Automatic annotation (TrEMBL):
Keywords: NADP, Oxidoreductase. This is Podospora anserina S mat+ genomic DNA chromosome 4, supercontig 4. Signal peptide: none annotated. The keyword Acetylation does not apply. GO terms for molecular function: oxidoreductase activity. Belongs to the short-chain dehydrogenases/reductases (SDR) family. Residues 1-11 have a biased composition (Pro residues). InterPro entries: NAD(P)-bd_dom_sf, Sc_DH/Rdtase_CS, SDR_fam, Sec_Metab_Biosynth_SDR. It comes from Podospora anserina (strain S / ATCC MYA-4624 / DSM 980 / FGSC 10383) (Pleurage anserina). Residues 1-20 are annotated as: Disordered.
Amino acid sequence: MSTTTPPPAPAAPAATTAPNAAAAANPDPVSQLFSVKGIVALITGGGTGIGLILTRTLALGGASRIYILGRRLPVLQSAATSVNALVGKNVVIPLYCDITSRISISSTVSVISSDLGYINLLICNAGIGGPQVHLSSTTPNSLEEFQQQQMDTVAGWEETMRANVTGVWFTAMGFLSLLEKGNHTEWGKGGVSSQVIVVSSIAGFNKKAPGGWAYGASKAAATHVGKMLSGLVTEWGMRANVVCPGLFPSEMAAPIVEAAGGSMTGGGVIPLDKSVVPLGRMGDEKDMAGQILYLASRAGAYCNGNVVLVDGGRLGTFPSAGY
């Protein structure tokens, strides 16, 4: 009786890696592009307006420490308490600092040097509105009245330039060493060099002055300071960029918004006439959050010397050409 040899058993299938395990081992780089997890930031004027938006955004994004600076310590403390409660840990540290004072800047540098000893991101956001425009659209002032009115604002111009221009430059100068140290941290070694971001304004491009003559001139100068910084700090492996917001909820924007028929109360999206902002609304928190997450993360790590406009098209309504 003949016999046959049974065929060999099929080989066991090769082991495969579970999809979830593979994703954990090799996270999608796209999902990490806008991450700010672990960054250490310093924001001047970080307790109100745009500064508070930036503080909240970085905290929610996973920043390990955010120093917020200003002259109104109770306001900073209140902001820190609210943001820390939001993220469930003490991430935001309020510190008194007058950016127009060399002594105050140096003192703050010493405090941070004794704490973590470095920062990865410096956001020069603090500023003031300065003397406001008082020209009436229905009854223009006489030349003599306008002339006297402007001559009376000399002290206001000096104060505005000191806060919005000189303060930006010397804040950056004061914290350069801490920024350079940030390049040698885990965050800095991850492909994102330390950075200065100057928060300026589209007012710096306007020949008119809805926010004040001194304010517009100071913001034009602040924008140029940011661009000068971009060329300077590359010497030490850092970079600088400028963000020029349009109308966002803030103390300084309130007079302009109200003059344009808008209201700063009620929350939510604040509508504006399209002749003021072509998109028909004021900027909101998400609009500003997107800019900072881009510039501060790996997504914007190749940006240096950029001027980013965040204004809903408002600059297009300005009489900035025609010389």
